[in-house]
Amino acid sequence: MNIGVDIRPLLDAQLTGVGEYTYHLLNTLFEQDTHNEYHLFYNAYHVPPHMTHLWNDKPNVHHKPSHIPNKLLNASLAFLHTPHIDAMTLKNLDWFISPNPHFAAYHPNTQLLQIVHDLTPVLYPEFFSAKMRFLNRFIYPHSFKTAHHFMVVSKSAKEDLQALCDIEEKNITVAYPGLDPLFRKQAQPEAVRTVRERYHLPERFILFLGTNEPRKNIESLVRAFELWNPSDVGLVIAGKQGWSAPLRTKHNKVWYIDYIGREEKPALYAAAVCFVYPSFYEGFGFPPLEALSQGTPVMVSHTSSMGEVFGDNALLIDPWRPGELAELLPEYLTCHGELHPRAARIAFAQSFTWDTTVKKLLDILMSTN
């Protein structure tokens, strides 16, 4: 088969979220499948090194760049539904894979596999800037209307998709993402010491890692920490500043790190006494899984997919009640070993593999072709 793939999520120099998902999914797919021909679409003159790695030394993977100015291309796709980006890679494709809803238009004969991570733009538009709310009005309805099959990252995302878009169950496949191979090894003590020294971290600290934006609910975590006000534990908030990031507290035991490189993440997770993720809504939740892979105790919101994904392997919390979280934090730090043994946490995280995700993707392409 000839299969097109939109790799525009990989154009950022520093990958997070959807970009990381797209990279690991395609890297595993291209390693496993040497029979089908893949044609990669992107719109840029220059690409970061992680993109070229996907097609180097892979004769069945072809990259097809477009050089139309982004604003012009997006406007044309949004309002005129042209050009067909699948035809820009190769005419008469059997399938086209979209790793995330984007400005796009496709030839009517091309089967579109739309990957959906979450329905945040539809369910909670208030978590986005006015500009993004406007753009999402063009992106999401068109992506959902033109798709032939959907692959979603959790059962929760599937239920949201069915409820909001009236899509038949037979056209949706749930495929949990895998764990980044980097996290399949435990961070070494030397790496942990290096991270502590580089960022001047306290001996004992609670960690949040993710984009600092309203949906992540960092304000509730900071409020809970202030209510608890421990003398021997700090709070570290790591991750790049997103849209409408909350003001930083002046509490002397709260540390901020703007961006953590991929290679440093395992050591940072391993250094923490607990990882807390009070997000209001997630399609899956990579950071809690990564923290568990390093044996770190995890607390996550009971909302959306997180209760489904992490279940008995993390302590579920109410993201709307910082006072309750303030009471749970010291209790969980003393009893997490009994509730969630370290070896069990690591084994659970290791059970998520990209090989399994890719198998489900290939099953979709093969069974419905």
TrEMBL record:
Residues in Glycosyl transferase family domain copies: 203-338
Organism: Candidatus Magasanikbacteria bacterium GW2011_GWA2_46_17
The protein's name in its UniProt record: Glycosyl transferase group 1
SUPFAM superfamilies documented for this protein: UDP-Glycosyltransferase/glycogen phosphorylase (SSF53756)
The Glycosyltransferase subfamily 4-like N-terminal domain, residue ranges: 17-181
One of the record's GO molecular function terms: glycosyltransferase activity
Classification of source organism: Bacteria, Candidatus Magasanikiibacteriota
Keywords per UniProt: Transferase
GO biological process, one term: lipopolysaccharide biosynthetic process
